[in-house]
Amino acid sequence: MKKTPVTVSVGSLNDDIAALAAKVYRTLMDGPRLVWADDDGKVYSGEAGDRHGVPPSWIAGTFAFGQAADDIEGDLLALRRERSKDWIID
After folding, report:
1. What are phi and psi of 11, to 5 degrees?
2. What does the alpha-carbon distance between residue 80 and residue 13 come to, in Å, rounded to a whole number?
3. Whole-number Å distance between alpha carbons of 74 and 69
4. Is 16 helix (H, G, I), strand (E, B) or coil?
5. Is 3 helix (H, G, I), strand (E, B) or coil?
6. 3-state secondary structure of 84
7. What's the CA gap between 7 and 88, in Å, rounded?
8. What's the pLDDT at 2?
9. What pLDDT is stored for residue 86 in this prediction?
10. Exposure of 77 by Cβ count < 10 A (0-12 exposed, 13-18 middle, 19+ buried)?
11. Residue whose C-alpha is closest to residue 48's, from 65, 31, 27
12. Residues of the chain whose pLDDT is less than 70?
């Protein structure tokens, strides 16, 4: 089996949340992963235990293989809702 790279782009917070969670889940085969979204809403999965220089407000969570898809979806949706406030101009 091919090992997941240290950090991999998995999509965007604008993507369908169920599809995005499925992509995140596929990165968990090699161990727990930290999942975050940058200022542009691009979602990344990186090895857990390393914050990758990511600000805490960007982090969706740390996930492991076997974790319920609903947990991943819920955390990604919460991050999208929180981050969308930054995208709206008053």
Report:
1. 150, -150
2. 6
3. 8
4. coil
5. coil
6. helix
7. 28
8. 61
9. 64
10. middle
11. 31
12. 1-5, 85-90
Tokens linked to 54 = 């990511």
pTM of the model: 0.87
pLDDT at position 83, please?
81
| H runs (alpha helix) in the chain | 17-26, 69-87
Q: How far is CA 13 from CA 2, 7, 49, in A?
A: 26, 17, 23
Q: How many CB atoms within 10 Å of residue 13? A: 22
Order of strands, sheet of 42-47, starting from the edge strand that comes earlier in the sequence? 7-12, 42-47, 33-37, 59-63
C-beta of residue 34 within 8 angstroms of C-beta of residue 59? yes
Compute the C-alpha angle 46/33/80, nearest 5°: 80
Angle between helices 69-87 and 17-26 (to 10 degrees): 120
CA distance 34 to 64: 9
Q: What pLDDT is stored for residue 4 in this prediction?
A: 63
